[in-house]
Write a structure and sequence with these properties.
By secondary structure, the chain is an alpha/beta fold. 39% of the residues lie in helices and 13% in strands. The strands form 3 sheets. An 8-stranded mixed β-sheet has the order 1-9-8-5-4-2-3-12, with helices on both faces. Strands 7-6-10 form a 3-stranded antiparallel β-sheet, with no helix packed on it. A two-stranded antiparallel sheet has the order 11-13.
Length: 378
């Protein structure tokens, strides 16, 4: 059986987790948490990176830091995971979904401005498959209208837009280190921050509303409950697991790219023949091989494809059901404009097995099976 996903494991995870236990510090903000944060700050060129308990909690923190009030509106794509929407619903906002681009499956930047009202406060670009949204346009629109930009870069660790790391471009950037991501701590995430005021507020929010971080830096004589907060701090054991992968981040990235590139080259003839569509990577984007997908002709063909691959013991899955059509999406938001591509393109998309350490023979077996499915002699 070729699994759709295998959680990343580089070799020193158990050693580092043992060290965390021997350090007598398995709660948050221990040595490994600090190592991971410092690595991200240096690699992604941001003033502050805070590890969180999940990508969802990073989004929750970002939404709360935006200072949303009931009735405020947030613009986002419908083709995303529920966590993107949940964060802003929990903060009291209404969701305004707009259509996606069929080439990247990202939010269509040309549809955003028409969706802005006097109630709009935030734009949420979701970098699908680790391929950047058109951030220059989005940031320009946000700047003219005085809006915050929260990047959902859950899939974008190590990807860039015009040389800048995804997650570092907006007011807040959110990563995920779930087991399905390129780098994992089981459950975990990170919030990237810029301004000193946002950094201080985020530290307080993450530490249950206390100024504990300032206390440990010697900036206050004692720590106290100073504002609203929650517990968004992951265990140092989780951070130890992640550190083993961040140490070898480039190796992991190159390994995944090898599989992505092999798929992309092998399926070029199918695209040229009009049988499928392959992912598009715009010229300004460098991606991280988070996933490889193809687009079938329609929903019926995709269903048959997944069944065909399952019969050959190869795990393939479709992705999001558009949020605007889900019960909660209907309750908490609305779709602005026409749904030209969101539903139609999501019905066609199917993801192939992709993970660090995938064996060459397994990769070739996936490729051969895809080609067999589309063989006109079958």
């Amino acid at each position: 059986m070729i699994s759709f996903n295998v959680p990343p494991f580089t070799g020193r995870e158990m050693e580092y987790m043992r060290q965390a236990v021997e350090n007598l510090h398995i709660s948050g903000d221990g040595p490994f948490t600090k190592k991971c944060a410092e690595w991200m700050q240096g690699r992604f060129r941001v003033p502050r990176a805070l590890l969180t308990t999940s990508g969802s909690s990073a989004l929750d923190m970002a939404a709360l830091l935006c200072g949303l009030r009931p009735g405020d509106e947030v613009i986002l794509p419908s083709f995303t995971f529920s966590s993107t929407a949940n964060a802003f619903v929990l903060a009291g906002a209404r969701l305004v979904f707009v259509d996606i681009r069929p080439d990247t499956m990202n939010i269509d930047e040309t549809k955003i401005e028409d969706a802005i009202t006097e109630k709009t406060r935030v734009i949420v670009p979701v970098h699908y498959a680790g391929i950047s949204c058109e951030m220059d346009t989005i940031l320009e629109i946000a700047g003219r209208h005085g809006l915050k930009v929260v990047e959902d870069a859950a899939q974008g660790v190590m990807s860039t837009y015009k040389g800048k790391a995804l997650g570092s471009l907006g007011d807040f950037g959110c990563f995920s280190f779930h087991e399905t991501k390129n780098y994992s701590m089981g459950e975990g995430g990170a919030l990237l921050l810029h301004g000193e005021e946002d950094i201080l507020r985020a530290e307080i929010l993450r530490e249950k509303g206390t100024n504990r971080s300032q206390f440990f830096r010697g900036q206050v004589a004692k720590y106290n409950w100073v504002d609203f907060g929650d517990s968004f701090l992951p265990s140092d054991m989780n951070a130890a697991y992640l550190w083993a992968q961040l140490e070898r981040a480039d190796e992991v990235n190159e390994d995944r790219l090898a599989t992505w590139n092999a798929y992309h080259a092998a399926f070029a003839p199918l695209e040229e023949a009009g049988r499928i569509q392959r992912p598009t990577v715009p010229a300004d984007c460098v991606h991280n091989a988070h996933m490889y997908y193809i687009k079938c002709r329609d929903l019926a063909e995709r269903t048959a494809f997944i069944r065909f691959m399952a019969e050959r013991e190869i795990g393939c899955v479709f992705h999001y059901v558009p949020l605007h059509s889900a019960p909660a999406g209907l309750k908490f938001g609305r779709f602005h404009g026409e749904d030209t591509y969101t539903t139609a393109e999501s019905d066609r998309l199917v993801r192939l097995p992709m993970y660090y350490g995938m064996k060459k023979e397994d990769r070739e077996r996936v490729i051969a099976s895809v080609l067999d499915f589309y063989d006109p002699r079958r």
